[in-house]
Amino acid sequence: MGEEVKNYDALTGMEDERAAEVKAEGTAPSIPSSSMAIDISLPLDQMKPRIVDLCKDLFKRWSFLDESCFSIETVSGGITNLLLKVSVRDDRGNSDSLTVRLYGPNTDMVIDRKRELQALPHLSAAGFGAKLLGIFGNGMVQSFIDARTLSPSDMSNPKIAFKIARQLRQFHKVAIPGSKEPQLWNDIFKFLDKAAALKFEESAKQVTYESISFQEIQAEINELKDLTDLLNAPVVFAHNDLLSGNLMLNDKEGKLYFIDFEYGSYSYRGYDIANHFNEYAGFDCDYSLYPDKDAQYRFFRSYLESDNPHEVSNKDLEALYVETNTFRLASHIYWALWALIQATVSPIDFDYIAYFLLRFQEYKKQKEGCFSLAQKHLSRSPSCNSSRRHGRPPSED
Ligand SMILES: Nc1ncnc2c1ncn2[C@@H]1O[C@H](COP(=O)(O)OP(=O)(O)OP(=O)(O)O)[C@@H](O)[C@H]1O
C-alpha cells in the first residue's frame, strides 16, 4: 500500500504546466504516502492498531516492530481535526515521536485540501511548522514539536509579538508555486454562497438563520472589497489563521513555530496581520483587546525591518496601519461566514450561530472607524489605486 511519492504533483493533482512552475520555484521534496484512511470516530484503543499499520506502511524501518513498541495519545481534539501523538521505541532502544492528524468530517467545506497540500511541503522545506513526514487518505503525519502552545495573552507580550512579527515577515516571503492571485475575496464569496444555502434541522436554529439577510452581507462585502481594492495592498502567501493555538514556543531555545497551514493562501499582508490582531480577543472574544496604535506600530516596525525597527519610514508604517485596519473588517466577515457553515456540518458542540452573530456585530461596530481611516488615507495619497502590487512585501531584507 505504501509508496514513496517521487513526484509530489501526483499527490496534489497538479497539472504539467504547473509542475514546470514548481521546478522554477524549487521542487517540493518527495513525501511518503499511503492510501490508508482511518475512521476518526473510532475510540483510541480501536484506532491504535490502524495507526500502527499506517506508521509501518509509511515508514518501512518500523514495519517489523511489534505493536507494543508504539504508544498513542491524543494531543488535541482541535476545532477541526483530531491530532494524535505517536511515540515509537524500536528494539535498539531508539525512540521517536510524531503526530498523526486526522481531518475532521466535512472539513473540506471550509478547507481547500489541494491548496494546503500544494503549499505544505514548500513551507515545511522553508523551515515553517512541523516537518511533513507522510500523507494518507484522510490526514497527514508530521514531526512532533517540543514546545508550548501560546495563550492569547502571550501574543501581546512585546518580546513574543516581536518574534511573531519577525517570523511572519519571513513566512510572507515564501514563494508557493502556482497562481499568486489573492484568494481572500474568492474564498469569502464561496463561503457566502454556501452560507446562504443552509438548512438547519433544529427549528430554533432555522428561525435564527432565516433572520439573517444575505443580501445585506453581500452588499457589505462588495463595499469593503471596493474599498480595499483601492489600497494597493501587497499580496503575500499568508497564514490566514494566526491565532494563539497555531503558535508554539520553545521557551528554552526561544524558538517560535507557526503551525497549521490549512487556511494558507495568497492574500493581502494586511489581512494576515489584522486577522492575527483580531485573535488577541482570545476565547472570550473580547475585542477591546485588539492592539492599540502604539502596539500595532511596534509590531509593524518588527515586521518591516526587524534588524532596524527604528528606520522604518512613517509612510510605510501608515500604509500598513491603514491596510491592516481596513482588512480587519474582512477577517470578521470571513470567520462569521465560516462559522455559519460550521454550524451545519461540524460535529463539535459549539454555538457557531452565536459566533457568526458576534463576528458580524463586531464588523458593524468597527465599520465606520475603519472605513473613514481608509478613506482619509486615500484622499491624501490618490496614487494608491494606480496599480496593484503582487508577490512579496516591498522591501526585501
Ligand atoms: N506538530 C505538533 N507537535 C506538537 N503539538 C502540536 C503539533 N501540531 C499541533 N499541535 C498542538 O495541537 C493543537 C491543535 O493543533 P491544530 O491547530 O493544528 O489542530 P486543528 O484541529 O486544526 O485545531 P484548530 O481547528 O482549533 O486550529 C495546537 O494548538 C498544538 O497545541
UniProtKB/TrEMBL annotation:
Broadest EC class assigned to this enzyme: transferase
GO cellular component terms attached to this protein's record: cytoplasm
GO MF annotation list: ethanolamine kinase activity
Annotated EC: 2.7.1.82
Gene3D superfamilies, per the entry: 3.90.1200.10, Phosphorylase Kinase, domain 1
Pathway note: Phospholipid metabolism; phosphatidylethanolamine biosynthesis; phosphatidylethanolamine from ethanolamine: step 1/3
Biological processes, Gene Ontology terms: phosphatidylethanolamine biosynthetic process
Pfam families attached to this UniProt entry: Choline_kinase
Family indicated by similarity: Belongs to the choline/ethanolamine kinase family.
Protein name as annotated: ethanolamine kinase
Organism name: Ensete ventricosum (Abyssinian banana)
